[in-house]
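WARN no homologs supplied; continuing
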Amino acid sequence: MAVAMVTTAVQQTPTIDEPVYVATATDYLHEHRLRYNPEHPPLGKLLIAAGVAVANPHYDPSYTGTQGGVGRHLLYESGNDPGRLLLWARLPVIALTLLFGLVVLAFARALTSTAGGLLALALYTFSPDVIAHGSLATLDLPAAGFVLTSAWLTWRARERPGRYLPLAGAALGAAVATKMSALAAVPVLLALAVLSVRAALRRGKALPGLAGLPGGRRRTALSVFAGAAVVALVAVAVVWAAYLAVDPRLRFTPAEPVPAVHGTRGRLVDLLPVPEAYRAGMRVQFGLEDYPWQGYLFGHLYTGSRWYYLPAALLVKTPLGLLALGAAGAVALVAVRRLRVAAPYLLLPPLTLLAAAMTGARDFGTRYALFVPVFLAVTAACVLVPGGRWAGVRVPGGRWAGARVSPRQWAGVLVLFAAVSSLRTFPYYLPYANEAFGGPAHTHRLLHDSNVDWGQDLGRLADRLRQRYPGERVWLVYKGAGVPSYYGIHAADPRTVPDGRVHGLLVVSDSAVAKARGKLAGLIGNSRPIDEVGHSISLYRR
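OK structure emitted
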């Protein structure tokens, strides 16, 4: 997994969100101020800042502009090497992604066995979505991993609540201090903390400070309240600590206007015990939710959102082996008595987060639901639970007719299938689609944006043009944060001139192809497709 992620990080140019996060992290380091990107809390960007500090880029704090403009200025207009800076910014996220793999292993092993832990780890390490987003300087994978870590620590608190509940609160706080979408997991994990405290009490293990109280309902009620309070207070403390780490004086001077939010949403924002910059970020998020975004699903372009978008996109972009084993593991969680107690810890957090994400206005990709493959890998391990009375499946015919295939053998075959599927897409993990939907070469016909084309292949496009099409006239419609001229691509926008002048190579990002209407659709329609780059950029001959 480390090899796959580092290789991908070296080869990919900036995705759309990365320049903003890297510039914000650089501003944290140099200016210690809360100015850019308030819609996402600082913790994930502080992690990115650890890599930026090693790269030590030149930074001009006097530059004024939007957060996207600041990112572009830092990468391409300040004398920095964007490839080197991005690699260092991505490496801390890569390291954290690998550490979350150990959480997957530990959680699955505690529920099942060493074999189950290794099965979960294999599914996690070969998950294309995890590799794709774990190799970027973005926030989606860190937030998902922190939620998983909090669920695991809350599970461990059933044995030692005094030790693990504060740690679970810290992990929950880290998730909420990385992405605000993790707020939906807070009530679920507080409820799980209550379950863990009650389980600990049944084992005669009380929270420190409450052991001397007499038994009965009063002690149970106090213990349950104290357990949930510990998780909540530690989580809030971590959020405050993330902001204080940027600026101990908590000065908030946003570079762009923060929209006003009224009604119930505004009152809820004002009630949260978090810094003002966090509340401002929530207002920005609510403003973004009110925007009429365009979506694209199974060849259909639409305005607004579809509640079934994320489940459908996950079916396309999750390996079939992981889908099969995850579904079987979920059935085992409910059907096998000794596993049933773990079902809330493995099923409720991802289902709650998925339900919340499905109500969002931005149908941009499975990165909004990365917690699903992460939790699904752990859930899949439950098919190997020791003592589970699973009947084998008889082979219907052929040389091995009548032989029984055990669950462990079926699991091994499905893990191998998932691994081969992942290896076949290397190093193009962002546009991955499983075999049922035609593989990564066909993803752009089904989905768009970060599912396929997030601007990551600009450098590969430059190499392709130099190697195969030297000296040809290039017309470019590029969706991304990179600067084509930096990579030696000298092209014009075909939409700005009459159709009759567009001759030579027409190069279009696949997200732009999916959303093409009017003039661009006409240009593509009477051009001949000749090549593609990274399964995310199409080349046509005119």
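Residues 275 and 385 are 45 Å apart (CA to CA).
OK
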